[in-house]
UniProtKB/TrEMBL annotation:
GO molecular function, a single term: metal ion binding
Cofactor or coenzyme needed: [4Fe-4S] cluster
InterPro entries the record matches: 4Fe4S-binding_SPASM_dom (IPR023885), Aldolase_TIM (IPR013785), Elp3/MiaA/NifB-like_rSAM (IPR006638), Radical_SAM_PqqE_MftC-like (IPR050377), rSAM (IPR007197), rSAM_sf (IPR058240)
Metal-binding in keyword set: yes
Gene3D superfamilies per record: Aldolase class I
One Pfam family from the record: Radical_SAM
PROSITE patterns: RADICAL_SAM
Alphabetic keyword roster: Iron, Iron-sulfur, Metal-binding, S-adenosyl-L-methionine
Protein name: Radical SAM protein
Amino acid sequence: MKFSLDAHKLHHHLDRVLEFKQTGDCAPIYMEVSPCGSCNHRCLFCAYDYIAYPNRKLDTDNFIKFTTEVAKAGLKSMLFAGEGEPLIHNDIDKMVAHAKQCGIDCGMFSNAALLKADLAKKLLPNLTFLRFSFNAGDSQTYSKIHTSHKKSSDFEKVVENIKFANDYRKEQNLKVDLGSQFVLLKENKNSLINAVKTMKECGVDYISVKPFVLQNENQLYKNNSKFETDQLETLINEAKSYESDDFKVIFRQNAFFKYGQRDYSHCYGCSFITVLNSAGDLASCLPYWDKKEFVYGNINEQSFEAIWKSDKRRIVKHLLENKLNAKQCPPNCRPNSINEFLNEILNPDVKHINFI
């Protein structure tokens, strides 16, 4: 089995694609959930620094009710990530467990600083994967990239927590995949190889190397330096030299070399994915979830069915699929590869399609 992090998997859900093609709509397959707005780190490149880490959390009871409903509607996966650090939410283990009980595959992104042993034991059995944000290979660089409220770096604690997660996974024979993600910047490129070595020693299944992505025009960090192809290849070749049967280095090639490229004009992908922020707003996608014109409704005020079938969502959906110029959207958005696939199906411009 292999990890596919640089493309889409919508072709594994052709029944939903057919439903969309025939009716113009469908229930979402994937949802990204932001359990809380606050974060224990202040990463240099944070995509949501401009909203100032609001001290808000999803109401647990409302979320559990909502999760039951979206599972019945056909949601298949839920990623706990979003604006802040999901482990800050006091009931994160209950939220994940309930989603799993409803038949939803659960993933999570975390910086792992708060992943204490007792919490890891509760979370890991209910997760399909846990991916750690690990963007430096030494304590000094880690402190610079993952700046936290404390004077000392969380580097050693994070490494210890990740090692425990792997040890517990092995001890309990759990099926959860453990991975890590490294956002390559000019400020941390010299520590990439040490990060690869460290993650391999921790026992994770892979480290994914991806470029910085500008999610919103209001982001404070602006990455003005692009890596030359030969420079990237040198780094990645050295990083990949540490691969083994149990550890992979995944270079997000499309994310680097196709950054910002789009061959389609409108967005169809937001019928298949959606996002829920820590205020309870259900919206089209990550770059626009702070913009009211892209918010469908709020789960504290309406049921999922009422939101998904609402006039407001119909208006947003029409905007996305007919008026929005997708080429002006932030690059490398999550629906991008889905949109490339859907555009070929919905707007075919290839001759002789029956000659397969």
